[in-house]
Structures are given as structure tokens and as C-alpha cells.
Amino acid sequence: MNPLDAQTLSPTRRRLVMLCAVLGIVLAGLDGAIANIALPTIARTMHCSDMLSVWIVNGYQVAVAVSLLPAAAFSEILGLKRVYAFGLALFTLASLACALSGSIGVLIVARVVQGVGGACMAALSGALVRAIYPRSMLHSSYAIIALAVAISAAVGPTLAALVLAVASWPWLFLINVPIGLLAVPLFLRVAPHTPAFDSNTAPRDRILFDWRGTALNAGAFGAGVLGVDALGQGNTLLGIVEMGVGGASTLAFYRQQRGRKAPMLPLDLLAIPLFSLSILTSICAYAAQILAYVALPFLFQSVMHYSTVMTGLLVTPWPLFVAFAAPLAGKLAARYPAALLSSVGLAILAFGLLMLSIMPAHPEIPDIVWRMGICGIGFGFYQTPNNLTVMTSGPSTRSGAASGMLAVARTTGWSLGSALVALIFGLAGGSHGATACLELGVVFALCGACLSVTRRVVRQDSKA
């Protein structure tokens, strides 16, 4: 879709497409989080070991990780609409299969399929927004995407606890089905067709899918995610081996992609300093976020002895304040440099994490809430301008690859943060481990702020 098409799309149709995009993000994000809470219940119901039940989560995470870049590549061959609709439909059908599964093996396979569908939506949401909105409206639309990501990540565990309090675990997946059944036909009806490459003029590697690159991508990201999980389970040797395989696959993937004109791993975009710095900023920000998201529930439940539901409520101010800050940051991004806004946001996030790390042993609830609110404001101010920079620093013909890389940065940051949480809790358990995670989150947020402000210099140099 070119800018003229985005300008002429009716407001009602644009809002309906955006609704489908947000639903996809929220569904995929929630299902990535809720299964952790349900694992003990599922293992008990299906009479399987805890080790086997972990693959309900692992299968989904690995499928998402290995499918992000291939989904983005397919979107540039087949068009955004087809691939996003396929992902939404696949996710819906897989959710039904999860709910109806009668054995742990069927459930794991269904979760893998569900992860593939979720990856299609996560990888293409940013490109879909760029396709349907004119540039003057991108700031506010990316604020909505930022809010959807934040809410789905933070609310998932609480929602799972509430559902399990009144219903059996299959309902965690069944609630996706009616939403998907409404969203798929609506999306197919209202979403505009986005052009694929012209086979008569496009380079050969733009119109033929890169299967060899896909296999290397699976080795790089799949082994990396499994290695992180192994470290988290205390399997240090296995984790090191798997991460070593991931590293070797990453190197082979990079070498294989260098000669391609439109690589699945977007080396052409990463060669743009503004783009690569924005991706690194994103990795640091999401690593800081997951360090807090994993450490804080442990702190609230195991140290401060709050219930699961209360823990979810205490985490909620973070996404609520993202809801306030993200639209404001979107409006400010139209007037002020995105690099500056993101740096300020990450500095605020670092301050909020620092305040959480020095909380008294038994704080009052308001003392927790205002600290979480500061983190939400900082993350909201960072996310919208940064995502906007990622999606607009390269050519529009590569928006699918840019959107996929943004999702990869999020996954990489979360995986890195998760590995560090496992390492820290292995070395220092209890409240000391949670505090150390928050302190490391401060470091990542400040590193992200420094990387972000560097983009200001890069942009000035490129203008010169």
C-alpha cells in the first residue's frame, strides 16, 4: 500500500483494521503469559511430570521465536493481509485444539501451532499499522500498539489466576475462539490488500522464499530460547550447549544472508545506523522490563506474602500508566525528537526500578503503586517514539522486515532478561535475588537511554 492509499482509507475502515491488529497482539501476548500460571493445574489434570508440562510453554516460545522472521519474509512475498489473516486464523484454530486436547502430546503440538500463528501477528502488527495510516497519524497508532503489548504482558498472569479460580484450564484457550471467529472474517473484509513483489521486476530472492535461511534461523533462535530455558531450570550444561548451538547457527545464518538482496535477517536495514541503534535500544528496554516482571511477582508473593490475585493487581499500575504515557509520547513525537523522548522515558524507567529496588521490607500498597506507575510512565514514553523510529527509518517496501525485527528485538530482550533472572536467582535467592534483578534492570534501562540519545547524533550526521 502506498501513502495515497493510506490517506484515502476511510476512518471507520481504518479503525476496524486497527481493532483486529490490537486483538491479535493481545491474544498472542496473553497466551504467551497465561500458560505459566496454569502449568501445575494442567500437569495434575493430565497426570504428567512437571518436566514434560514445561513444554507447554517452551513449545509456544520456541515456535514464536523461530517464526518471526519467516513470517515477515512471507509478508513481503504474499502481502501483509494474507499472512496476518493466516496467523489470526491459525491461532484461533490452535486455541480450540488446545482446549479440546486429551493428552499432553496433543496439547504441546497445538501450542506449537498456536505459537506460529502468534508469531505472524506479532511480527506484522507494526507493518500493518504503517500500511493503513498516513505518516501524520503514525504517532498515535503506534501508541495504541505499545499499550496493547504492555497490557498483554502484564495482565496475563492475573487473568489466568482469575479464570482458574472459576473455571477449568481449557477455558484459558477457549476464550480466544469466539474472539478469533469474529476477528478473522472482519479483518478479511476491511483490511486493504497490500502489494506483493512484482515477479517480473523484483530480484529473485525477493519472490522466492528462503528455506535454507529459515532452517538456520530456527537453529539460531530456537536453540537460543531453549538454552535460556535450560538455564532457568538449573540445567547449566545443557543450557550452555544449546546456547552454543544457537550462537553457531546465528553465525551461519549471518553468512548465508549477506549475499541476498532482500535478506530474511534484514542486514540491509541493520546497516542503517538509526535502525540498528533503535533495535539495540529496544533490546535493552525489554530486558529491563522482563527483569522487573519476573522478579516483582516473586518479591510480592514469596517475600511480602501477597496472594496471586493481589500480586497481579500490584503489577497493574505499570500497564495502566503506559496507557497514559504512550499516547502522550505519540503526540510529543510529532514535535520533539524521538531519540530524546525515548531517552527521557528510559531514564524515568531506570528511576522507577531504582525506587522499587530500595523499597522497605514491608511497604504500604501506595508505596508500591507509585513506584510501578513511574516505571509505566517511563516505558510508555520510550516505546512509542522508538517503535515509530524503527518502522520509519527504512524504506516502506521493507516494513514487513522492520516489523519482524522489532518483534525479534522484543523476544531477544525478554530472553536475555529471563536468562539473567535465572542466573541471579541461582546465585542469590530470596529478596536479595529480586533486588539484584531490579538493580540490573536499572543498568539496562540506562544503557538503553544512552543508545537512544546517540541516535540524535546519528540523525544530525546523516543530515549533514
The CATH class of the largest domain is identified as Mainly Alpha
Q: What characterizes the major β-sheet?
A: none
Q: How many strands in all?
A: 0
Supply the helix-strand structural class. Answer: mainly alpha
Report the order of strands and helices.
HHHHHHHHHHHHHHHHHHHH
Q: Return the CATH topology of the largest domain.
A: Growth Hormone, Chain: A
Count the helices. How many? 20
> Could you state the CATH homologous superfamily of the largest domain?
MFS general substrate transporter like domains
Strand content: under 5%
Mean pLDDT: 83
Instruction: State the helical fraction.
Output: over 70%
CATH architecture field of the largest domain: Up-down Bundle
The count of domains is: 3
Radius of gyration: 21 Å
Q: What global shape is seen?
A: globular
Low-confidence stretches: none
The CA-CA distance between the termini, in Å, is: 31 Å
Structure description:
With 464 residues, this protein is mainly α. The protein folds into 3 domains: 1-205, Up-down Bundle (Growth Hormone, Chain: A), CATH 1.20.1250.20; 211-259; 265-464, MFS general substrate transporter like domains (Growth Hormone, Chain: A). It has helices spanning 3-8, 11-46, 50-53, 55-78, 80-100, 104-132, 138-166, 171-174, 176-190, 204-207, 211-232, 236-257, 267-270, 273-303, 308-315, 317-333, 338-357, 365-392, 399-427, 430-463.
Tags for this entry?
464 residues, transmembrane, MFS_dom, membrane, Growth Hormone, Chain: A, 20 helices, globular, mainly alpha
